[in-house]
Design the sequence.
């Protein structure tokens, strides 16, 4: 199994100005934008950490997910949520020959924890020996920062500020998030049932 991010969060979608306000950085100076690149880096790092912790894509972007076998013959859980659309499903044989599956043969079952690719018939298209299936989809709460849930947006600000304020520390501490961030993210954590599987 392999998940690949096909598109990145555009700079325009990052709340750099709001982050400056959150940090209470001075404004009105001639070099006001000099730290924008640094602030963008901390925002991206905080978003990546929160996405890893919650299994949720924050700002909408495109992904591809490749599997060598279906986990369930009739459905396949996607590794990140929320998924808004499945753009393509392809079967690739061991020689690299690709067959694009008609969209009428599958559908998206939306879910905040474990969205699924579901067959509209009895089973998903078979994957040949040595072959794989590729699912292209779009995931994220929305295309803009304003579409994020308020608690997740605040958690990103808190964590990015934590990274910014401790940027000169060289000692390695405990690999945990600040308490406030963890509390805000608790309801978004992946719920693992049935022996650790989400489905």
Sequence:
């Amino acid at each position: 199994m392999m998940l690949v991010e096909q598109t990145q969060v555009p700079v325009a979608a990052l709340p750099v100005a709001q982050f400056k306000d959150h940090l209470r950085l001075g404004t009105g100076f001639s070099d006001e934008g000099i730290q924008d690149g640094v602030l963008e880096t901390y925002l991206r790092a905080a978003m990546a950490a929160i996405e890893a912790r919650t299994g949720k894509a924050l700002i909408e972007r495109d992904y591809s997910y490749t599997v060598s076998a279906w986990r369930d013959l009739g459905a396949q859980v996607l590794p990140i949520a929320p998924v808004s659309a499945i753009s393509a499903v392809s079967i690739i044989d061991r020689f690299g020959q690709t067959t694009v599956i008609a969209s009428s043969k599958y559908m998206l079952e939306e879910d905040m924890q474990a969205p699924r690719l579901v067959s509209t018939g009895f089973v998903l298209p078979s994957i040949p020996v040595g072959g794989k299936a590729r699912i292209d989809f779009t995931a994220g709460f929305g295309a803009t920062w304003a579409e994020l849930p308020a608690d997740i947006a605040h958690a990103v600000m808190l964590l990015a500020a934590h990274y910014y304020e401790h940027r000169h520390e060289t000692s390695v501490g405990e690999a945990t998030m600040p308490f406030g961030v963890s509390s805000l993210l608790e309801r978004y954590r992946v719920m693992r049932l049935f022996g650790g599987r989400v489905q």
